[in-house]
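Why this split exists: single-chain examples teach little about how molecules sit against one another. For that reason, every record in the complexes split bundles all components of an assembly together and asks for one structure covering all of them. Below is a record exactly as it appears in the raw files.
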Amino acid sequence: MTETLEKTARPVDAGRSTPLRTARKPRNVIAHLFLVVLVIYFLVPVWWLLVASTKNAPDLFAGTGALWFGKDFNLFANLADLFTYNGGEYLQWLGNSVLYAVSGGVGATVIAVLAGYGFAKYRFRGRNFTFALLLGSVMVPLTALVIPTFVLLSNLGLTDTIWAVILPSLLSPFGVYLMRVYIADAVPDELLDASRVDGAGEFRTFFTVALPLMRPALITVLLLSIVGTWNNYFLPLAMLSTSKLYPITVGLGLWSQLASSNNGGSHSLWSLIIVGALVSIIPLIVAFLTLQKYWQGGLSLGSLK
Amino acid sequence: MAPVGSTTTTASPPRTAARPSRARSGSAKMLARRGRTGWIFIAPFAAVFVLFLVAPLAYAFYLSLFTKGLATGTVFSGIDNYVKAFTDPSFLNGVWFVVRFSIVLIPVQMLVSLAAALVLDALTTRLARFSRLMIFLPYAIPAVIGALMWGFLYSPTFGPLQQLFSLFNAQAPFLLSQGNVFAGLLNVVTWQWAGYYMIIIFAALQGIDPSIYEAAKLDGANWWQVAIRVKIPLVASALVLILVFALIGTLQFFTEPQVLAPVANGTITPDFTPNIYAFNLAFSYAQFNYASAISFALGIVVFIAVYIFMFATRKRGSLLK
Amino acid sequence: MALVATVAAMALAATLAGCSQGGGSDAQGASNPKLTNCTNKMMNDAPQVSVWAWYPNMAKVVDNFNRAHKDVQVCWTVAGQGGPEYAKFQTAISAGKGAPDVIMLEADQLTGFEIQKALVDLAPYGANDVKKNFSDGAWKDVSQGSSVYAIPVDGGPMAMIYRKDIFTKYGITPPTTWAEYAQAAEKVKAAGGPLFGDLGSNVPAAITALMAQKGAVPFTYNLQDPKNISINLDSQPSKDVLDYWAGLVKKGVVGTQDQFTTDYIAGVVGGKYATYVSAAWAPGYLTGAGVGKGSEKGSFAVAPLPQWNAGDQVSVNWGGSTFAVTSQATNKKLAAEVAKGIYADDASLTDGWKTQTIFPLNQGVLKSDAFINNPVDFFNGQTANKDIYIPAENNYKGFNYSPFSVYYYAQLQAEIVKINAGKISGSQAATDLQATMVKYAKSQGFTVK
């Protein structure tokens, strides 16, 4: 996961208001064509998913028209099937994903904001070293950590519980890096000093002065943390064994295993998997759209170093 | 950034800790106290960091110093596992694959993202705004699900590619065959991540002071020249950052090949990438000691690669400011 | 600030939720606290035993068990199917915690877990009470000497499913020997017909069974003598079998598609393969996958597995599952009760075979009229059980599995991939496989004979 924020001393401004209007017509056309090609490339699989969701199992494997609708429009039947299969298993998984993503994401953001502020605004021994350590930690392959983390959590009696997923998700070195970089420039020391001079304590200063200035970066980190936890597959796969606790990624993975050896009994799981995949991407898309105005336009940017 | 000029009041501020503060805000004692507060801010993160990264890492390293045979017990073996790892053809082939893959994938991804970001930066039409969202969309799809989708799309029986070819009575190339899997995976990963990088570069571009463009245009630069000579250099540090993290991520390639393995007709072997190899060693063959060593060996490879890269781009931007 | 308040509220809520959830997995002693997160509901307050299983009809099976038992209740979940479940089990073994009380394992996995002392010997818990319910071969697969590590549930005696319509069209009668099989394959090809069969790289268990059918004994391993193992993967029978199939691939008469994929199923539906060398659970698998619903309905039949020598009746097995008790079980006695009793009652077994979910190994079922004379729908009413599968099962002598089946299968799979790509001959594959496995066994501390 990568991200960068450029810092500015200027207040937030919603994107540039004077675009380069001097582009000549032909260039505009080429540019737009390029965009169209890209959009098609990125959307074809999603379109396929949409179309496939409206088909029932035989149509899916009929071997014709993968990118166009089949004879029947089965979307609602598939949806009904999805939400009732195995006693509403899918909804349980969706709820789990929401729980993990929100609590993990919010938690990670809170921790990252605090730590970023600490790194940016305080001088203490070992600060640079710790920060370098932070970046180095990103290079560690997660596979190395899974079994030890499992051992650790099982010693705490937390494996196969929601905490096994939420707690490790609180770790976001990227988030800390981003916040630190952004705060270092977006929150002027002068303001902080002024607040201290006024008699506010460190924490009050943080909350009333610094925090509002961090908002674009904070929202970005929040979004990235939520997305990261939502998309997480490997961690919950390793930590959870009861299917009731699975997030949607692991749940669909399970159905996919069962479907391949056709262990759905007489129920073809393929259409469920496809419609399930479709439904699973909706919450994130909604989240993006709603938070969009905060983080896309709101990443106020000034000169880059 | 030292605090500017200090005019502390003499009366002790009622809300702080009951300590009459006659010191100036720039005094060492004050700074020291604030330093300690700094630790408080960092504490929650430090706790999680130690608990979920340092401790497991230390334990994993400890594990890697032992060897466990199914028939024998666990025996201390020092760096034997590491020697074994760096002479293990499975590991080395995996490393070779991810290195090659990174060398091709990262430029491709960057080109696509950069081009898209530049174009989107230059236009403000509705199409541009819509495109921005659509290009970013795949990032909202978990890699697992994206790979599942591509598994379907690549199907030699049901995939649209095959159906297109069958219109001409031809057989589409199987994009997960031995010869094509490189390209097949390249496509999946680019599709999944290009939008994410694009947004970052775009955000960085949006932050450029427009007056610089005015200056450039006054000098007679056209759009292309502005892009190459002005924009790209100004987002260089953002680019370096993404490149580093892309490099790290790609060397640790795991999810997509793992998910696509069942539909790849045997192409994606249990040691296809070092991370997959470590995973299988730990979870399929019950050899976590060796698996830990492989993971660390991979970490070493990643570290060296990143170091080389940072060295090569040291003029273009520093990550540690 | 609003953000902080929200976070604090969520943290509090989560803590409370977490408190009420915890306590299940680190239970101790005989008190058997209530387990949480069961997929099924409890029917009474008896102590609970956790079970991992992936049968499609497991919900019914569990309910049947829970209804009939006042002394114990089953708490079931699907922890994965096959490999992923074993991976989770392996993790739990390494960590010392997190394994279920009872686990569904395929027979070829048992030795690997027995050697890690992860399974409980059920003989002291009355396993031999149910021995009479199973054939010798089936019982041998779950035993090590006088120790019994699992209770069989279903099996996969192998046979040859074929397309009657294709056979009729090209004038083929079901081959009884492998030589006839090869001849029939060429005949069909010469007449422009479809592929005769398929050598999937992802079915190493089937291929190993076929090697055993010619007399190969790939592994000789005895848990009582844990450090020694014999590996004979390059014996003449192994080479012969691999050469045979490599030859078929080379001649282009069999496919190289991985099985258990939608692409393979599409091929079966479309008549791309004239035969499917498979196990007794295949009809259920194929039906569930959608085969037999379209124009190909009613065109399938089954014949005994071809033999190497005319008149032989060597029987081999592919797949099949058991229930074992793990060494992390809190109450081993109760867990053993569950392992013996679950999926062993009439209702569950009948549901299992009627829905073609399993081929039960329970002799009671195998001897029942209903099962024997069952006209199998998939085979257009052929009494496949009576004619083919029951005799095959009763003839099955058992197999000696290695303690590293997963690794072995992965290596065999890699060799088959090479065979299918035409890069290597069957004999060469056998030799390479032998070398790899011997090296591996030695690195694991075994003395290889």
